[in-house]
Amino acid sequence: MKSAASKAAGLLGALREFSEREAILLRVGDYEGFSAIRRREAPLIARLCELASRVDTQGLMGRLGELLERRRQNLALLQGRAEHLRSESLRLSARRERLRLVSPYLRSQGKRGQAVTC
């Protein structure tokens, strides 16, 4: 049977791999994959917290803290991208609305044979 320290080391390795995949998925814009990885990480983190009481917590908590910080950075990057997409969507909606308001005028100008420039 594995010791608590070896279990923790294995879980940390798996969590490190997930964290690296998370960053890659964010870079390529695979937000669904990012979310799936996040869901798979949660039980690992819970198990590591349980093991922390039975192993050298200083070493384990230090490495776990680094990985959790990387997760926070990935989440902050995701939130930044989401905010950028929201603002871009609002900008496009405003342009679409302006075009909707101006298009009847542009159509009437075109019917009169006048050049329409935008």
Which secondary structure elements does this structure contain, and how are they paired or packed?
Layout: H1 4-28, H2 31-51, H3 57-111
Helix pairs in contact: 1-2, 1-3
Order of helices and strands: HHH
By oligomeric state, this entry counts as single chain
What is the number of strand segments? 0
Structural class of the helix and strand makeup?
mainly alpha
Alpha carbon gap, first and last residue: 74 Å
Helix content: over 70%
Structure description:
This protein is mostly helical and about 120 residues long. It has one domain (about 5-90). Helix content is about 85%, strand content about 0%. It has helices at about 5-30, 30-50, 55-110. The model has no long low-confidence stretch (mean pLDDT about 85).
